[in-house]
Amino acid sequence: MSRPDPKAATRVGVVGTGVIGGGWAAHFLAKGYDVVAYDPGQGAEDRLRRLIDGAWPALEELGLAPGAAKTRLTFADSLEEACTDVAFIQESGPERLDLKQRLLKDIDAAADPETVIASSTSGYGMTEMQRDCARAERTVVGHPFNPPYLVPLVEVVGGERTAADAVDWACDFYDHAGKSVIRMDAELPGFIANRLQEAIWREALHMVAAGEATVDQIDRSITEGPGLRWALMGPCLTFHLAGGEGGMAHMLDHFGPSLKSPWTRLIAPELTQELRDRMVEGCETQAGERSIADLVAERDRKLIAIMKAREAAS
Amino acid sequence: MSRPDPKAATRVGVVGTGVIGGGWAAHFLAKGYDVVAYDPGQGAEDRLRRLIDGAWPALEELGLAPGAAKTRLTFADSLEEACTDVAFIQESGPERLDLKQRLLKDIDAAADPETVIASSTSGYGMTEMQRDCARAERTVVGHPFNPPYLVPLVEVVGGERTAADAVDWACDFYDHAGKSVIRMDAELPGFIANRLQEAIWREALHMVAAGEATVDQIDRSITEGPGLRWALMGPCLTFHLAGGEGGMAHMLDHFGPSLKSPWTRLIAPELTQELRDRMVEGCETQAGERSIADLVAERDRKLIAIMKAREAAS
């Protein structure tokens, strides 16, 4: 069996149906796919159906694809059933390397040889996870954020034995399935978003451990502060605006020395000319035709929309 | 002159009118205060008025306080003018310790002896900044986020010589002036939100420096991923939900080992029983009566509202 057109896929396998796998199932159902799910855990089917029932009103409000229905979920009796006659398989088993290795080996053995298999792993590299797969060339990481049926991001990257065309296929498939894809060229522990999130999380844990801040203060400092901005501009473009009309270049001049300050337990890299230029050029590329004033106006408009939406949905 | 009721203040001094100071001026004007601003920089008045003109449509949309008007801005000819006959002074000078020390000394000398003086510093402690102040007991940190006229957070903390009643007064004043206040009990470099933000920023710089990710990938990984959630739930409550029905306790069991993973260059603290209990209790306190299912429904509702608002404002 050859690999189908990624845009023509209609039936996907979901292996592991906890919070993440169940969220993937809800996402694929809402996008109009048939979903065959499998999880060996006791009561897994009930939990999965409860999760999908809980998510469905949100998905209806966002807009279901034509023909999308909860009834298009099949809970399989075996791993094999979830891995055959499907165009794509999303693995979301427990986050332990030995379990991932075994599960991917079993999926690989059960699946049609061309079917692309993606792992939801939060941070393992595919090179180590695909170790025991006979057809490792079609295994990729497809790392989502919780809940996968709402948060658009998926990070896609292969391992040493993964073929580039499998990564291409997964990116095209996810894109068609309504995800926002970041394709990484090289393996990196935690990928990109989790590294950033983990840096925040560890600094937060340090502060709580040291009695410097409470859980409530930490969460409020984000939702009432920088978290409001991060829904609309990432950390780099945010700081591009913090530099005023001089943008990122001025910001690095002005706040660059704070990289030496003990503002987090994470030591900063040396702010070399090369790093500085990459940051400035990256921000200018993102900004495109938009001046700083345009970006400020856009940020303000979106911030207000987000604050009002947050308030209205309370 | 005695200190006025923080709720009865009508006139504030703003010293330093760059991006942050100018943003404060816009905020106070929109909240119906008279603002006396001073900045010695060439062309500062023009830049300030341009900044306020740029921000005003946003502030009108959010809703101006009765009587609020851009015409209630006075640009002072001297530092003294901005520091007298005002109920409160917000300092937002350049972020260099020696300049902060000199500026606060000058403001302290010019201001009525009871007037509370707050510094917008991004991370210096008030103990070091207030070194040369004769009346240091009324100097506090009031650290905002950009833009101060939209992002609600202000972190308030005193230095060694600051009197508790000045910190109280500043918290009450900011609260009345429409800010969301975090009162810190102890000085901490970078306060809380900047430590979290700086951890993300430094990890981002490392990735760019090492060629592991581009500026565009970093920003998209946030705005399409965890950044969407952080506008509505902080990192702790977010992870409380990632644990499924078991909440933070299950999350720490499940993902705790990842604290040892090289997912960021920041080494995590030891996950002791005490830290674990603090995290679990902190999340349970925040959750209050809301079950995990309630929180999931609330998160989904707000995420959808935010995504729709972001889209509509594009």
From TrEMBL, chains A, B:
Q: Which PANTHER family match?
A: 3-HYDROXYACYL-COA DEHYDROGENASE FAMILY PROTEIN, 3-HYDROXYBUTYRYL-COA DEHYDROGENASE
Any Pfam family from its record, for instance, is 3HCDH_N
- Give the organism, scientific name: Ferruginivarius sediminum
Which keywords appear in this protein's UniProt record, sorted alphabetically?
A: Oxidoreductase
Q: Name one GO molecular function term.
A: NAD+ binding
Q: Does the keyword field hold Oxidoreductase?
A: yes
Q: Which InterPro entries match?
A: 3-OHacyl-CoA_DH_NAD-bd, 3HC_DH_C, 6-PGluconate_DH-like_C_sf, 6PGD_dom2, NAD(P)-bd_dom_sf
Name the chain's protein. L-carnitine dehydrogenase
Q: Which residues form the 3-hydroxyacyl-CoA dehydrogenase C-terminal domain?
A: 190-258
What GO terms in the biological process aspect are recorded for it? fatty acid metabolic process
Domain 3-hydroxyacyl-CoA dehydrogenase NAD binding per the UniProt entry, residue ranges: 12-184
Q: Does the keyword Oxidoreductase apply?
A: yes
